[in-house]
Amino acid sequence: MMVRITLNDVDDEYGRIRFDLSIDAQNRPMKDMVWFGFEGSLNDLENSHPVMLNQSGTIDLGDAYDVHCRYHKTNLLEKEIKVKSYVTIWWKYETEKTEVVYFIEAITLLT
Fold first, then answer.
1. What mean pLDDT is predicted for residues 33-53?
2. Would the CA dihedral through 70, 49, 75, 11 be positive or negative?
3. Residue 7 CB burial class (10 angstroms; 0-12, 13-18, ≥19)
4. Is residue 27 within 8 Å of residue 78, measured between CB atoms?
5. Predicted pLDDT at 13
């Protein structure tokens, strides 16, 4: 089943990230391919940009970012996909690392 999940930063109600994922019968993300999504607002092109999530749980912000700010880790692929589940993203910018907790705010069926 294909779904779009919306992650919302627990400390910032505007910090949303969306990913399209295939999930199995146990509501676990399938790790058989790269997944796409976007960060930011649906209706604000200046504050929205695409993201990619690979099979190892690495978020790639794309080649517009310096290599030291481009790749970040998440435990999303290890989580059951259900509303109010918590997900962590470890953002890395240069030498600074920040752990941010998100919750699954919404799940939309795409099939």
1. 86
2. positive
3. buried
4. no
5. 76
